[in-house]
Amino acid sequence: MARKIAARAKPAAQSNLFVLDTNVLLHDPSSVFRFEEHDVFLPIMTLEELDNNKKGLSEVARNARQVTRLLDEIVSHHEDGIQNGIALFGPSQKIASGRLFLQTQAIPSDLPISLPTAKADNQILAVVIHQQRLNPERAVILVSKDINMRIKARALGLEAQDYFNDKVLEDTDLLYSGARELPANFWDKHGQGMASWKREGRTVYRVKGPLCSKLLVNEFLYQEGETPLYAMVRELSGKTAQFETLTDYSHPKNNVWGISARNREQNFALNLLMDPEIDCVTLLGQAGTGKTLLTLAAALTQVLETKRYSEIIMTRVTVPVGEDIGFLPGTEEEKMGPWMGALEDNLEVLNKTDADVGEWGRAATRDLIRNRIKIKSLNFMRGRTFLNKFLIIDEAQNLTPKQIKTLITRAGPGTKVVCMGNIAQIDTPYLTEGSSGLTYVVDRFKGWAHSGHITLQRGERSRLADYAAEVL
Questions:
Q1: Would you list the domain boundaries of the chain?
Q2: Average pLDDT of span 143-160
Q3: Enclosing H/E stretch for 26
Q4: Which terminus of the chain has fewer Cβ atoms in its 10 Å neighbourhood, N or C?
Q5: How far is 106 from 127, CA to CA, in rounded Å?
Q6: Given pLDDT bands bounded at 50, 70 and 90, which one contains residue 180?
Q7: Could you say which DSSP state residue 353 is in?
Q8: What does the alpha-carbon distance between residue 407 and residue 400 come to, in Å, rounded to a whole number?
Q9: Which one is predicted more confidently, 379 or 244?
Q10: Cα(307)–Cα(450) distance, integer angstroms
Q11: Class assignment of domain 255-471?
Q12: Quick one: pLDDT at residue 4?
């Protein structure tokens, strides 16, 4: 993404020099290779902060150790002195063609008196000022994920930018929604030579026309009116598309564990969740749109009734909204209990869907459900393989692209993965709507024959929750 960064830099005859803040390396351990033809400079204070962060089992500590090993590999294979920089072309597998510079000498501090030099951020700013004086003919740019650091740099007359390489989209309004409304004249333009037939109770259409080249496999199509159409794209070939109608989960006879779809998008979501050919489902939507309820209803139906999966595994990121409540007692599942309030709330709803069984029947069902749902912590996911499981990743917007890759690659044969969240509610530091792991999965998986996505639009929790989400 250096091309994006370079496009905003001052026009220069030669490549730019990017000074990296520590948080960029901790956020993306391979960031030194992401600046293409430009040079990268690492202040000594950045290396000090890496050293301070390398202990522990957290994701930040792992990234710090990974960066340290990477830098050691680059430096140890460089035979000449490092004063003139180290070519990154070889170590980066031909991704980067610039050079890596490390601070090899003490520099004079040219900071204003009001900025204490003992602070690490200010020492990095002093390095940027020094490099600017040494290289007046080229653009020297500070790259940092810390907004305050960038503001301070600009106040001192330095150029500072965010790290853009991990951003999937600049504007999340452009994020794939999973559904497309067909224009009113669709059948006029695409109806000539149309073929249709029945397959397993559904109608399949094969049409040809200009819109077909813009469609994606497993994208939902809809057209409201006197004869509404709800369909899903199944096959694409140039300007020819094949799509089939959906199961109507809004009808009580098609209910899933007693739950019926209340709106169009919920119907689309249940079609994805109940389809055995779709291995990865992503659900986006604000609070109260029914993401967790629909997913759990589909999971329980396929685990307890159709026996398609052996058990449900649910996990989420443990990022507190308020103050942390300290260490929690008990086993892994008991420690995760307080984070799984959403699971308990939805199970309570699902357990009341069958009014005929009485209290004893509901208690027996509750015990059966409890035995089939396992709550797991993200900390213990590495190296595992889940066979024939229904894996639910809740609050996935708080995961980095690397973390979500670690989770999805746990899926073994016969496992279905559902990632859900609301990208407007991100609690993890340095993650934005554009760089969230959930956004990353939605963008990278779109169009794959075994994945599907839908953005839920309407809140169905209560009129109070809907109004609060709108006005507060």
A1: 2-161, 172-245, 255-471
A2: 91
A3: helix 22-27
A4: C
A5: 9
A6: very high
A7: S
A8: 11
A9: 244
A10: 20
A11: alpha beta
A12: 45
Return the structure tokens found at 423.
Answer: 């990208």
Lowest mean pLDDT among 69-73, 90-94, 408-412: 90-94
Amino acid residing at 95:
I
Q: Which burial class, exposed, middle or buried, applies to 318 when counting CB atoms under 10 A from its CB (0-12, 13-18, 19+)?
A: middle
Half-sphere exposure (Cβ direction) of 65: Cα atoms closer than 13 Å:
8
- The answer regarding whether domain 172-245 maps to CATH 2.40.30 reads yes
pLDDT, tens digit (0-9, with 9 covering 90-100), for 419-453: 999 988 888 777 888 888 899 999 999 999 999 99
Segment 67-83 shows an average pLDDT of: 84
Contact 418, 300 (CB under 8 A): no
Beta-strand relationship, 220-223 and 179-181:
parallel
3 pLDDT higher than 70:
no
Q: What are phi and psi of 233, to 5 degrees?
A: -70, 130
Of the candidates 227, 243, 253, 147, the one whose C-alpha atom is nearest the C-alpha of residue 190 is 243
Q: Are 179 and 446 in contact (CB under 8 A)?
A: no
Q: Which residues contact 172 (CB under 8 A, 6 or more apart)?
A: 423, 433, 434, 439
Residue tagged 């709330």 (tokens): 345
pLDDT exceeds 80 at position 342: no
Second-level CATH architecture of 2-161: 3-Layer(aba) Sandwich (3.40)
Q: How many residues belong to the chain?
A: 472
Residue 447: alpha-carbon gap to chain centroid: 17
Same fold, 2-161 and 255-471: yes
Q: What is the pTM of this model?
A: 0.73
**Residue 416 and residue 391: Cα distance in Å, rounded?**
6
Residue 13 has pLDDT above 80, yes or no: no
How far apart are the C-alpha atoms of 255 and 305, rounded to whole Å? Answer: 13
HSE on the CB side for 327, CA within 13 Å? 3
pLDDT at 173: 66
